[in-house]
Design goal:
heterodimer, A: 314 residues, alpha/beta, Rossmann fold, eight-stranded mixed β-sheet, four-stranded antiparallel β-sheet, 10 helices, 12 strands, B: 323 residues, 12 helices
């Protein structure tokens, strides 16, 4: 499989009152064509920031993003416009991601208006087609976002994201704001569309169970760094990093038969302004080895087929 | 031996808005026993929060409780005067909410807020109240209780704020704690800490807990019994294990089937879905409120509201199919 996107040595620091929020702190990874990569972590770990950077919605502090063999941040205006057709994003909040003053025809048609010469009837037909693809009827065209439920709005957001037939879709917590039964509908749609349209997904979520369901590969993040990555089932069933283990153990599982050992993390997540030296997880790690964990930041080391962990205990 | 703490009979709560009357709670019945943790589960708009707020008579206009009884150890709360209800809230029944940041007043210290509750309900002196406050902070696992008393909510993390809410709620040793989505706003690892805290305190103090949530995983972790709610009505109630192993109502089954399980990966089989969307609460359909989305509905479902039927040990369903 060829590489669709390659992220190299990515840093993103946000300056705030003289200090730095280390949102992304040395992250590198690749996404191959056709894959679904799950990016997992709790709030403040940097996953949303990464999603925005790889679409060039915000600039990195340093590092490279190579999209389809080209350096995304060195493209000219014209080249960037072309590249933007190949990528799309669906946001978490279905209530703030659709302009309430535009009807569905305008919202889903906007990318087509900007990038193609389709107008009037032909444009309307294309939009109707896109809506049908996500399971919405043509009568939605003249209606406004507030007339639709959360699940329907996410479908509209998907139709918009797919308007230009992108190869890469970033899905940033696409179902977190939805009820459980609606989530299932939207997830099924997401899977269907990937199969039909040969899409590549970066699926960002804090919900590990969802991610192990939908992703081929998982990356677990903590305070701006990747602590573990590998095939989804492998990471989920054989987690090697203490944080991954604690995260999995903390998920409330809707199953009465599974007995699990509970790993409770003490204390709060440190602020990304004040990242602990050495391994950023050392202040809460139940398996901390001692000195080295407080002094040296561990690097990602191979522990299995495609399975990497950043931990001194390995 | 189960002893009834709270009994709700035919509770009807409605909201009178421009578009019409929202029949949020449609004559519901519920029993909470002493020492048990009961989970009310349902999706957005099903009425679970309204149920919790109705118990404490915290329904504000345009909402109103229009009928029914809420019996706390035999006394009907709906017949109490405002003064009497104030003595009950925080003392016999306490509540914690989803967003601790908006539940705590940022202008006062957290210590002041905790002590206000203690001094309101007991005759403790200021010194005694401070001692009790520190004791409570210790009980909920807050580091440095003496120092934390003087902090303001915005100086503390979400997890710490929720611990303070729990401290406030349990400070006067209520018989019932109502927790409305207490961990939804918290990260997974912090959520685990809070749930473990709640479970530990419940065991220690013998408090009954009414946990309102949409997260079935939390129910498994913390609850003894679960009742599933849909469009203002209860559809099924059972002990937790029984509900997960043997759900009888089509909605309960649909709900359980729609959650990805561990080890379940995308593939040839889709996640279970419930077709359609929730009915209007202003203009609900006659008969069973779920019938339009139900693959098994019969004629009687479209005309008559289902009665409560026993289908197992402590297991009840509201469904014509189970008669």
């Amino acid at each position: 499989m060829d590489t669709l996107i390659e992220v190299k040595d990515l840093y993103k620091y946000f300056p705030i009152g003289g200090e730095q929020v280390k949102a992304v702190d040395n992250v590198s990874f690749t996404i191959r064509k056709g894959e679904t990569v799950g990016l997992v972590g709790e709030s403040g770990c940097g996953k949303t920031t990464i999603g925005r950077i790889i679409l060039r919605l915000i600039p990195p502090t340093s590092g490279k993003v190579i999209f389809e063999d080209r350096d995304l941040f060195r493209l000219t205006k014209g080249e960037l416009k072309q590249a933007r057709r190949r990528m799309g994003i669906v946001f978490q909040d279905p209530y703030s991601s659709l302009n309430p003053r535009m009807n569905i025809q305008s919202i889903v048609g906007e990318p087509l208006q900007i990038h193609t010469k389709l107008r009037a009837l032909k444009l309307q037909e294309k939009v109707a087609e896109l809506l049908a693809q996500v399971g919405l009827e043509e009568n939605a065209l003249r209606r406004y976002p507030h007339e639709f439920s959360g699940g329907q709005r996410q479908r509209i957001a998907m139709a918009r994201a797919l308007a230009l037939e992108p190869v890469l879709l970033v899905l940033d917590e696409p179902t977190s704001a939805l009820d459980v039964s609606v989530q299932a509908q939207v997830l099924n749609l997401i899977v269907d569309l990937q199969n039909k349209l040969d899409l590549t997904y970066l699926f960002i979520s804090h919900d590990l169970i969802l991610v192990q369901y939908i992703a081929n590969r998982i990356m677990v993040m903590y305070l701006g760094r990747v602590v573990e990555s590998g095939p989804a089932q492998e990471v989920f069933n054989h987690p090697r990093h203490p944080y991954t283990r604690a995260l999995i153990s903390a998920i409330p599982i809707p199953d009465v038969h599974i007995q699990r050992k509970e790993i409770l993390l003490e204390g709060n997540v440190p602020s990304p302004i004040d990242v602990p030296p050495g391994c950023s997880f050392n202040t809460r790690c139940p398996e901390k080895k001692g000195g080295i964990c407080e002094r040296e930041a561990p690097v990602l080391t191979k522990v299995g087929e495609e399975h990497y962990v950043a931990c001194h205990l390995i | 031996m189960k002893e009834t703490l709270l009994e709700i009979k035919e509770l009807e709560t409605q909201f009178f808005i421009y578009e019409g009357v929202v029949k949020a709670l449609n004559k519901i019945d519920l029993v909470i026993n002493k020492g048990e943790t009961l989970g009310i589960v349902g999706e957005t708009g099903c009425g679970k929060s309204v149920t919790a707020l109705s118990i404490l008579r915290l329904i504000a206009p345009p909402g109103r409780i229009v009928g029914g009884e809420i019996l706390l150890e035999g006394e009907d709360l709906l017949k109490k005067k405002a003064e009497e209800m104030r003595k009950i809230r925080g003392r016999r029944i306490s509540m914690i909410f989803q967003n601790p940041t908006s539940s705590l007043n940022p202008v006062f210290t957290v210590g002041d807020q905790l002590m206000a509750v203690i001094r309101n309900h007991t005759s403790m002196s200021k010194q005694e109240a401070i001692k009790r406050a520190i004791e409570m902070f210790n009980q909920v696992g807050l580091p440095d209780p003496e120092k934390t008393l003087h902090k303001h909510s915005y100086e503390l993390s979400g997890g710490m704020q929720q611990r303070i809410m729990i401290a406030i709620a349990l400070s006067c040793e209520p018989s019932l704690l109502i927790a409305d989505e207490p961990t939804t706003a918290l990260d997974v690892t912090i959520q685990a800490q809070i749930l473990r805290l709640m479970k530990g305190l419940k065991d220690k103090l013998g408090t009954s807990i009414l946990l309102v949530t949409h997260n079935l995983g939390i129910v498994v972790k913390v609850c003894d019994r679960i009742v599933i709610m849909y469009a203002g009505e209860f559809v099924e109630e059972a002990p937790v294990k029984e509900m997960f192993e043997n759900p009888r109502h089509p909605y309960s089954r649909g709900l359980l089937a729609s959650i990805p399980k561990i080890g379940q990966v995308r593939g040839t089989e889709q996640l279970g879905m419930i077709k359609g969307a929730v009915c209007s609460l202003i203009d609900p359909p006659p008969g069973c409120r779920f019938h339009q989305r139900c693959s098994f509905s019969k004629d009687v479902c479209r005309s008559e509201r289902p009665q409560r039927v026993k289908v197992g040990e402590d297991h009840f369903v509201f469904c014509h199919l189970c008669q």
